[in-house]
Every structure is written in C-alpha cells, then in structure tokens.
Amino acid sequence: MKENLLKLLSATLLGLAALPVVAAQPWMPNRPVQIILPYTAGGTSDIVSRGMAERLQERFRESFIVDYRPGGATQIGSNLVAKSKPDGHTILFAANTFMINPSLFKQLPYDTLKDFEPITYAGLTPHTLVVSPNLPINTLQELVDYSKTHPGKLAYGSVGNGTSFHLGTEELKKVSGLDAVHVPYKGMSQVLSDVMGNNIDFALANTPSVVPLVQSGKLRAIAIAHPTRIAQLPDVPTVSEQGYPGYASSSAFLYLVAGGTPVEILDRLNEEFVAVLREPSVQKLFSEQGIEVKGTTRAETAEFIRVEMEKAAELVKFTGAKVD
Fold first, then answer.
1. What is the pLDDT along the chain (324 residues), one digit of tens a residue?
2. C-alpha to C-alpha distance for 114 and 240, rounded to whole angstroms
3. For a designed S-S bond to 86, which of 181, 186, 194, 260 qualifies (C-beta 3.0 to 4.6 A apart)?
4. What is the DSSP letter of 180?
5. Is there a single domain that holds both residue 232 and residue 138?
6. pTM value?
7. Integer angstrom CA distances of residue 279 from 159, 183, 295, 296, 303
8. Extended beta strands in the chain, E state
9. Do 225 and 276 belong together in one domain?
10. 317 C-beta neighbours (distance < 10 Å), count
11. CA-CA distance, 193 to 121, in Å (whole number)?
C-alpha cells in the first residue's frame, strides 16, 4: 500500500514536471491611459506629450489620452496623479516646476518624493536668450554692457516667479552682472509678444518657441543656454562661449506615476517609454523641435529629480522668489 502511494506520488510529480512552463505576461493597460499635462494646450510640452502618446498607443494597443489640467503652478494636475490609483493608468507629464515647487511653496497638497514614482526623464529643450530687434544688441556681452550703462532701464519677462525661466535669468544676472528688472507673465506667448513689441527687452524661452520668430526676424537670438550650440540656430553661440562657462538653463520633461505603483508596472512603462524615445521617427520629431532626447532608467530619473530639487532650492533662496 505504501509502495503504491509512493509510485502514484512519483508519477504525479513527473507529470507536473512535464507540463509546459507558462511565462508571466508583461503588464498591459486594460483601459485608456491618461497623460496629465498640467499646462495649457500648445507649446513644447504639448508637442512632446502628443508625440509620445501616439507611439505609446500603438505599442500598448490602448488609447493614451493627453488630459490638460493647468493651474496652481502645476499643482492641480500633479495632485490628481498623486491621488490616483497606482495602477499605471494615470501618468504625469512634468517639467522643471515639479522640482521647483517644493522650495517655492510652504505647503503642497502632495509629497514630491513620496507620492510619485518616476518613469523616465524623456528629454530637455535648451533655453534661448532673445532680445527685441529694436534693441542695439547682438551678443550677450553687449547686453550686459548696455545694462550697466543704462542701470534700471532693462526689463525681462518670464512665465512667472519661481519658474525655470525666471530662475535661469536670475542666475545669468548673478554670473554676468547683468542688470534687469523682472516682469512676470501668465504665458510665454505674452512674453514673446511683448519682446517683439519692445514693451520688454529680452527673455529666456524654450528654443522651439523662438526659432520661427528668430528666423523671420521678429526676434534676435543672442545666446544659447546650453553646453553646446543647437542645430536650429547654429550661428548663435552659447552662454559659455561668450565668457560664462558652466551656465545652462533648460526645460526638462519627465514622466511619473503615483507612488505605490507595483514594480512590474513601473519597469514595463520605463521599458516602453524608452523604446519609443529610441525610435528614429520620435527622435526626428524631437530634434526638429530643438529637444534633446534622454530616456533614462527609473533610478537615473529619481537621481535627476533629487539633484534638480537641490539646485532649485539654492536658486529660490538666492533670488528670494515669491509665488505670484
């Protein structure tokens, strides 16, 4: 009897061993995925979001919908993602403001580090320094010198106190001795319109926004705030080339989901997002917009966020930036 049981058990185990091993299927969304864009439609962030959503939709065979949730210095859209179900179906498109806000606001409705998990640092677009065509300025040094001979006369615009454009310009003032008054606006289109109209004198702006205006002669580009020159404006020297080495200012583009999202979902999202960023058609689209593709790992993205938050804290403290 005992021998028969042992034979039966042995046969059963052999049978189980002979069964084919079924590999775990990679995570896939089972309903439309929302990409929350905490900005208004239009501009570089919109171009990036839509270009990525189109390719992700094809790879995942599920809809990826760009959902505009502007307001509150991006806090409205960010908080929506922070409080969303951690299942990979609600994704935040974030830029520099995400890393600046913790230093700019005494209290946020979410914890920037604990309530989010990074997917990838998708890319960046360098800022370009543009001046009014009516200003007799062709180089950064000429702008600095002009400001010193006309103290208190120059004004620059940005999309608001504490934004990357504001902090980037203030840092440039610090390293160069440039003298200019800050004028905050609600949107970059208003900033550039007033530079073209000679209501303000200059501004740092995302490169894709200014290239057509520079090429048409409506604005004059005098410096690229990036370590290297850019293909769209090859004749415009960098800030470093003009005597201020190490200076850079740009807009970074990140993707994040709610904290607590399972690792298998995070890894799958990173894998697919990076794969999309490696596609020649996407790289071509981004390059045409003046966007430098990154496509980092989750760990690299988390480290980038940490470092940028520290830099932002230093700049906010230095400038004394206050929210509008």
1. 555 554 555 555 555 555 555 456 789 999 999 999 998 887 788 888 999 999 999 999 999 999 999 988 899 999 999 999 999 999 999 999 999 999 999 999 999 999 999 999 999 999 999 999 999 999 999 999 999 999 999 999 998 888 999 999 999 999 999 999 999 998 888 999 999 999 999 999 999 889 999 999 999 999 999 999 998 899 999 999 999 999 999 999 999 999 999 999 999 999 999 999 999 989 988 888 788 999 999 999 999 999 999 999 998 998 888 775
2. 36
3. 260
4. -
5. yes
6. 0.85
7. 32, 40, 11, 15, 25
8. 33-37, 64-68, 90-94, 116-131, 155-158, 181-184, 202-206, 220-225, 250-258, 292-293
9. no
10. 10
11. 31
Strand partners, 64: 33
Distance, CA of 293 to chain centre: 11
- 140/108 same-domain check: no
Are residues 163 and 146 located together in one domain of the fold? yes
